[in-house]
Input
Amino acid sequence: QGQLVESGGGLVQAGDSLRLSCVVSGRAFSSYAMGWFRQAPGKEREFVAAITWNSNTLYYADSVKGRFTISRDNGKNTVYLQMNSLRPEDTALYYCAASIRSLGSDSELEYAYWGQGTQVTVSS
Output
């Protein structure tokens, strides 16, 4: 069983940057892909980014490509999401998720463990 704890969210202005972190415990972190998802009020949860177990392949939603960067530090059991050039439409609750596989995916079905989320609010 895995436990995931996100941090780093907050209230920022459009154009600002934030870095989210997710620390994983109770699971073989380095063997599995990790992902970030988000859910805005009144909307379905959506894929943001994913990273394979060895960081060789990164996946991004089109809406964040070129602005967000996912990375991981297997020595620290931590995955990061660097968010630059934030927009009001990036406002959402951001979730970290641990995959059941070593390769990344944009499907929630591939992720077995989820954090509680960290709120990101971007004002215009």
Remarks:
- The first strand starts at residue 3 and ends at 7.
